[in-house]
TrEMBL record:
Residues 1-23 form the signal peptide. Residues 926-935 have a biased composition (Basic and acidic residues). Residues 901-935 are annotated as: Disordered. The chain crosses the membrane at residues 869-891. Keywords: Membrane, Signal, Transmembrane, Transmembrane helix. InterPro entries: CLCA_N, CLCR, VWF_A, vWFA_dom_sf. Residues 909-925 have a biased composition (Basic residues). This is VWFA domain-containing protein. It comes from the Eukaryota. Residues 319-437 form the VWFA domain.
Length: 935
């Protein structure tokens, strides 16, 4: 096998052993119906409590049983690794691992989210069928179990697993579409407002969650905003786990809505929930069957033991091997000196104290040039720098280099697991041993090797305006320590004696410790640099070494705007890169950070397929709203790509702190590998963080939402690489259609004489997906749900006063009048661009004349709710808390005193039948109290 490489590339790899690899999100495999590799990690914010380990085992054991039954005996958790933070005590039965696994774990146990509190959720779910980033649980939930009000522990976990692994969405009501009036807890059909549920066999009642009275409609003819559906605990419904899990018999996922499907499993494709909106009205099982977990999988025996095998690991300080290419091709374009400069900066300024670092090189042979050294002083750093290579020559054997690093890392009794290799190379393998000789990888480029080994790859184009060599090490060390540098800014520029450089940077109030301002240039001896602080203090004391001129701001840098001024005596233009880094002002406190991931790492030039870049802007776990996030392809003068958090097109939810954008073919100017540079900033003091208000005594998990200004800040981060194929200089044709509209809603429904007048709302999308302005709208109406779902173009077209599309993200409104014939009508809309590219039809909205007397004012009778409390997912207020974050949460009802008997009966039944259930000890410890429990 040959590895084809262009330019200088840095690859971050995490090695378990020579024949075992881990992934950036740790790998999860399926064999013989069992998941292997599930990792649950505990944050170092959690105080040591060994009882938590047993609680996690209880949860995963229960979840494994629930999953096996719900997946039709196809999947369970075969083995689970529980990772403890290094602040916890080491036991003889525990296994040591290098570094921080928490940031790559599938399930993370951490403090309460400041916005949603104790509520379990999955972070970073974006598209139907696509996985989320991780599941978040709190210690409160783990110890309280079902008495926390979220449902039985196995059901809670498997519900979240549906989000995390298979990309399923909630089947309960959703209110996160900010700015659009939405009765999504109900839909109007057959003369009544039906509750959002799956399946329709879930029985219950509709009440005002604050007054307890039966629901009524507003003057606009839609349900009052505080109306919720309360499912009966003893309902005979068995599906769906993505919906009303509070039902005692709930243990399966919904299937198709066809008549051949058992009615107890039949998906309610008309309900206006996120599963239908995001997944085109497909059921959970329709999505699950397309996942690789189920392809080619056959059911196992119903009687097998699904208890996972547990391994306990404890994190230790990170161990890194720096692997540098010294083959002959590194002489070209001063690659060797550039690598030397970047590696020196990494060792001197970026890698955290307490990290063990070794250095190895390779050409046709691999060599350890410095054994592993735990960094504790500046002299340790200088010692490592002194070992860096200064000569080049020979052929290239990346496999030999990797073997050398493995030998160095394996010198400790702690072993290899969790260790990292940072590889810098510029060429293809030309001599043995090849990577394939030892690892069996079949990838044809270094990015594939990176993914297979669980790392990230970054491409350096060698263009003068590229900042990758500065940025890449900063991106690589983010998760190697709890006290790493935060990259504030990186910027390329050129200067001469007649053209100086001046740039403004912002040091915000959460950072400022160990702040460094650096200029990297091959002509560093001819460069002068000064930094002027917000109080006009001028810093000029520099340290120049290895092509880097550094100014360190003493003590804690004052927050505010700094001016960086650079001059030179050179008469020729000198290329240079500015880099600014700082640490959090107080160790352990939160600051604004950027997390970036891609929907795909390959792009076929000229195709309709697009890559989506996602950037989460967070302060701790709280989303940061209204900041400016842009992406640019490094290495050439490409246009910037603006990311949005507006809930249309590529963006799954508005105002959740996750910004996104499509990367189109016209953003690229060549084939090969590319790296996206992300800049997130707030320079106009507009950005806000979401936070909760004072908690309600009535609803302990409902606190409402408010915002507070977060202050000005700047951040920079790199994405992993994107590989472009089939590039052509032939002008592109416009084959990108407008995005699907997923925000169609009813604003009002009123009977006006003999006609029914309805007002529709939706958000405008673009000409190309969610960019620009579409040319026209196409609205269709039908009295057949199946026809408008399957053959919308054959339905009647609405033509009266159709609005002209506005700019993407704007709110559209349209009035439709239909004859009062008591039929239910179904409406969809799509956008069309200027070359007749037609977007997909929207989510379906149903409407009919309201004839159900239960929704009239005269039918209202106050209901006594003493001892009965509304649960989380169905409550509008609670949903505002949970869903605004872009978190996938679950629906539960509280367990009240009058329901305790049902719970005990079910527990007894399960213990007799061997079905999942909590231990007696668990229930004795957490006695039920007369309190309100909300999800």
């Amino acid at each position: 096998m040959r590895i084809i490489i262009q330019g200088i590339l840095i690859l971050t790899s995490v090695l378990l052993s020579p024949d075992t690899t881990v992934a950036t999100q740790l790998p999860l495999t399926v064999s013989q119906n069992g998941y292997s590799g599930l990792t649950v990690a505990i944050s170092n914010n959690i105080v040591e409590n060994v009882a938590l380990i047993q609680k996690l085992k209880d949860w995963l054991t229960a979840a494994s049983r629930v999953l096996y039954k719900a997946s039709k005996y196809q999947l369970y958790y075969k083995d689970v690794t529980i990772v403890l933070p290094k602040t916890w005590s080491m036991q003889s039965s525990y296994k040591k691992i290098s570094g921080l696994k928490f940031s790559r774990a599938h399930v993370r146990i951490d403090e309460e989210n400041p916005v949603v509190g104790k509520v379990p959720y999955v972070f970073g779910q974006t598209e139907c069928g696509k996985p989320g980033q991780y599941m978040h649980l709190t210690t409160y939930i783990l110890f309280a179990g079902e008495f926390a009000g979220f449902g039985e522990i196995g059901d809670v976990f498997v519900h979240e697993w549906g989000h995390l692994r298979w990309g399923l969405f909630d089947e309960y009501a959703s209110f996160e579409e900010a700015g659009l009036e939405s009765p999504s807890a109900f839909y109007l059909e057959d003369g009544t407002w039906k509750p959002t549920r799956c399946t329709e066999e879930v029985s219950g009642r509709n009440i005002n969650m604050f007054t307890g009275a039966p629901c009524t409609v507003t003057e606009d003819g839609i349900p009052e905003k505080d109306c919720v559906f309360i499912a009966d605990k003893d309902s005979s419904a068995t599906a769906s786990l993505m919906g009303q899990q509070n039902v005692l018999k709930m243990e399966e996922f919904c299937d198709t809505d066809e008549s051949s499907t058992d009615s107890k499993l039949r998906h309610n494709s008309q309900a206006p929930n996120n599963q239908n909106i995001k997944c085109n009205s497909r059921s959970a099982w329709e999505v699950m069957r397309e996942h690789d977990d189920f392809k080619g999988n056959t059911p196992g025996s119903a009687s097998i033991d699904t208890t996972p095998d547990f391994t306990i690991e404890v994190e230790t300080d990170q161990r890194i091997c720096l692997l540098l290419d010294i083959s002959g091709s590194m002489k070209k374009n001063e690659r060797s000196s550039k690598m030397y400069t970047a590696a020196s900066n990494f060792l001197l300024n970026m890698v955290a104290d307490g990290t063990s670092v070794g250095v190895a090189t390779f050409n046709n042979k691999g060599r350890i040039v410095h054994q592993m050294l735990t960094i504790s002083s500046q002299s340790d750093r200088q010692q490592l720098v002194a070992s860096l290579p200064t000569t080049t020559g020979g052929t290239t054997s990346i496999g030999a280099g990797l073997l050398a690093c493995i030998t160095a890392l394996n010198s400790s009794s702690d072993g290899l697991e969790g260790s990292m290799i940072y590889l810098v190379t510029d060429g293809e393998e030309s001599s043995a041993p090849y990577i394939a000789d030892h690892w069996g990888m079949s990838q044809t480029h270094i990015g594939g090797i990176s993914r297979a080994s669980g790392g990230q790859s970054f491409y350096y184009s060698e263009d003068e305006d590229s900042t990758v060599l500065t940025d890449v090490f900063a991106a690589a060390v983010i998760d190697t320590s709890s006290d790493t540098f935060i990259q504030i800014e990186s910027k390329s520029f050129s200067l001469s004696s007649t053209q100086s450089f001046e740039h403004y940077i912002t040091i915000d109030a959460t950072v400022g410790r160990d702040t460094i301002v650096q200029i990297s240039s091959s002509e560093s001896n001819d460069i002068d640099i000064s930094v002027t602080g917000p109080d006009q203090t001028i810093y000029t004391e520099t340290n120049s070494t290895f092509g880097i001129t550094t100014i360190k701001i003493p003590n804690i840098a004052q927050s505010g705007s700094y001016t960086v001024s650079v001059t030179t005596t050179s008469s020729i233009m000198i290329p240079a890169v500015l880099n600014v880094q700082s640490k959090v002002r107080v160790p352990g406190e939160t600051t604004a950070i950027l997390n970036v991931w891609l929907s795909d790492d390959t792009h076929v030039y000229g195709s309709e397929d697009t890559t989506v870049v996602y950037v989460a802007v967070l302060k701790g776990m709280a989303p940061v709203l209204k900041c400016d996030v842009v992406a640019s392809l490094e290495g050439y003068n490409a246009s910037t790509i603006q990311l949005h958090d507006n809930g249309i097109g590529s963006d799954s939810r508005e105002n959740d702190g996750i910004y996104s954008a499509y990367v189109f073919s016209n953003n690229f100017k060549r084939s090969g590998r590319h790296t996206l540079k992300i800049s997130g900033q707030n320079t106009n003091n507009r950005a806000e963080i979401l936070k909760s208000k004072q908690k309600s005594n009535t609803f302990p998990y409902y606190s409402g939402l408010t915002t507070e200004l977060v202050g000005n800040f700047q951040r920079v981060i790199l994405s992993s690489e994107i590989t472009v194929t089939n590039y052509s200089t032939t002008p592109l044709t416009d084959n990108i259609k407008p995005a699907k509209i997923t925000t169609l809603k009813l604003k009002s429904v009123q009977l006006m004489g003999d006609t029914l007048q309805i007002i529709l709302l939706w958000k405008a999308i673009g000409d190309d997906l969610d960019v620009g302005t579409a040319s026209e709208y196409d609205l269709r109406i039908s009295d057949s749900f199946s026809k408008i779902k399957q053959q919308p173009e054959q339905c009647a077209k609405l033509t009266n006063n159709i609005p002209i599309p506005k700019l993407a993200g704007s709110t559209e409104q349209h009035v439709v009048t239909i004859d009062d014939d008591s039929l239910t009508r179904y409406i969809v809309v799509r956008a069309i661009d200027d070359v007749e590219n037609k977007g997909d039809y929207s989510n379906i909205v149903s409407v009919s004349k309201l004839t159900d007397p239960a929704w009239t004012t005269e039918a209202i009778n106050t209901v006594n709710l003493t001892g009965t409390f509304v649960s989380g997912g169905l409550a509008i207020a609670v949903l505002l808390v949970m869903l605004i974050l872009g978190l996938c949460l679950k629906v539960r009802l509280s367990k009240t005193n009058d329901q305790k008997k049902l719970i005990n009966e079910k527990r007894n039944q399960k213990q007799k039948s061997g079905k999942r259930g909590s231990s007696k000890q668990h229930h004795n410890r957490y006695k039920y109290e007369n309190r309100n429990n909300i999800v």
